[in-house]
Amino acid sequence: MSRYFTKTLSALEPYTPGEQLAIENLVKLNANENPYPPAPGVAAAVAAAVPGLRLYSDLTNGELNRAIAAHWGVKPENVLCGNGSDENLLLALRAFCDEDTPLAFADITYSFYPVLCDLLHIPQHIIPLEADFTLDLGKYKGLHETIVIANPNAPTSLLAPVDAIEEVLRTNPDNIVIVDETYIEFAPAGATCLPLLEKYDNLVITHTFSKTHNLAGARLGFCLARPELIADMNRVKFSYSPYNVNSLTQAAGTAAIRDEVYFRWVTDKVLATRDDAARQLRQRGFTVLDSATNFLFATTDRMPCREIFEKLRERGILIRHFNAPRIDDWLRITIGTPEQMQRFFAALDEILPPQK
Ligand SMILES: Cc1ncc(COP(=O)(O)O)c(C=O)c1O
Question: Are residues 226 and 328 in the same domain?
Fold first, then answer.
């Protein structure tokens, strides 16, 4: 930190993203990216957008918002796009929290939430998950604080029921409840809180193109909410980065979300590979939580998880280990292609030879 860095942020601990190593033949299962390429129409759509780069991007994300609205069965006025969900979370927290309006969230969840709170000077109300990592949403009833719930949660991969989230919305009528549905399309049908948008004016859903629409590198996320809340977040957006989604990303996202057939094909493949990988880990003596996401959260008493992580890394297999309380003996494994998972299991069997 230089001597010029503002004192107000001197204690800021930035978010630690999953490593992006440039190793040949690396099996990258550490950032919950989709292992398949973007939809076939994306390359041509991006190429067609190149001449338009001369101009600023569409401030309103008009066509993209219409494509997202069609996919989710909402109106374009319910959509706000941003430079990844990370930016949308920032817009939402800036709009709906301040020094006097804390943000409540779980102790084990997406670790960007506390970083944003520190950056924006928002007090944090941290509510521990249960011993089995489930979320007791009874603890969020009538809190009178802004709340963020990742559902399914990361890194635990567990899904909370919609009716319990509805109780949180109902009992916090004067505060915003953000439901981060980054992984919702890997969960069973009916898991999304979207139908609650008609009933509750305090719901903000955040979503992303990084997982099911294979565009993590394009940096595109969106919020779904009532138009009044979208207008609030737009006030923040227009005060800091009006052209926040670039033209190439707008084109890529529009083409990706219109291709429902590819989306379904990719998602079904990831789900089949996930269920097979969970079975194989359990066969090897691992405890694996029931995942509603594109990753598995697993532990074993056969070797400290940190050591497994390091030994896999030496073999060119990158998964995620968190040096964090309660989860430092767990591993988060992103679901890759069947071939990548085969290499993962071959390396794992070298480290932990199969038990007779
Ligand atoms: C729970 C959760 N929310 C938000 C994000 C950020 O998504 P994006 O890539 O759209 O910024 C992630 C990324 O992994 C995540 O796990």
Answer: no
